[in-house]
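Weekly puzzle thread! Below is a chain. First person to post its structure in token form gets bragging rights.
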Amino acid sequence: MSRILVALALLSVAGTASAQFESGQADSRYDVQYGKPVDVSLSDLALNPEMYESRAVRTTGRLERTFDNQDVYILRDLNAAATIIPVQDVRAPFESEARTWMGQIIEITGVVTARMSTGGNVADRAPVYITFWKYLGPESKESKENLAKASELTLEALLSQPGKRDGQTIRVTGQFRGRNLYGDLPSRSERDSDDWVIKNDLYAVWVSGKKPKGSGWSLDAGLKRDTGKWIEVVGRPVTVNGITYIRALDIKLTGPPSANAQAAPPPPPPERPKMAPVVVFALPLDGDSEVARDSRFVVQFSKDMDEATFAGHVLLRYAGPVLPGDRPFDGARLTYDEGRRALTVDPGDVLRPGRQVELILLPGIVDIEGLPLRGRKGPVADNDVVDVLRYLVGI
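Winning reply:
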């Protein structure tokens, strides 16, 4: 890609990020323009680019540079790639740090701006373009020994001298307050939709970098009934505009700090009712009568699914009797995206025009809690089938 193409891609995003790009001011502006970023894999972007055109996305991949143009950066996973372009005000810091990140996993937040296809150059290898205003470098590989040596502080001690501990590895304990559900911190101080708050007494901080979950436990940052749990956070603080954020390296459930040990912990929230998973969306839509012959089928579920249970329990076939020329879909491939709770079924063959295709979900598919998949319309006539999605291939 030439520098001219890079410049054109940059101009496709109105405005540039604030020079203080870590402060979240740029995030707020782009949120207004493109909406909150959605988590998506590079594979899904490449598979369904039209779904994300001009939308804010957050994705991860291995950072590379092209051989034919050292100014072009590529983000790649096992099955797909994207050309990534920093907006002007993050370009200098990104390029400075990117020199040491080649071949490592990074995260970017930006907008899908264009798709190009020109013979013989980088556009053919990375047809999806993302212009980004936020990035996170490779996750720090802290040893358990180093984490164990983290300085233990109260939130009061941390916040009494803002900025003094920035960049150091510390250990603090606070009560989980969700995504600032109680207004403990200014609403405009939120930098990312995945960030959450812990608080002890009058002192509260944002926690980023890890979701509030661990082995055997998971909390929902959007539910007040999940708040009140004590969480120990090991991480590195940074202070921006008087607000402290901790980039978490390790988190775990714990009890209240010793100074508050005499205080009775809040009663546990009532156990959340367990609901069986169900299909909530499909692309193409169930019943579509103009499905392309090279279609792939995406099925989204209401809960996080156990990926291992799809094998042998997802069937693709032509409806009705077998006709001359019909081939079984022996080469069909299944890919599960945990972030979107979406299963992609690639038939591995061109679909026959005018035929009805059935995507059948069989008993044995369960979610991560072990609950079996439930049909959208209740039991079907065939007791050996949980749910069926039907499509008519266009002529």
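Puzzle host: Confirmed. Bonus trivia for everyone else. Residues 279-392 form a domain with the Immunoglobulin-like fold (CATH 2.60.40.1220).
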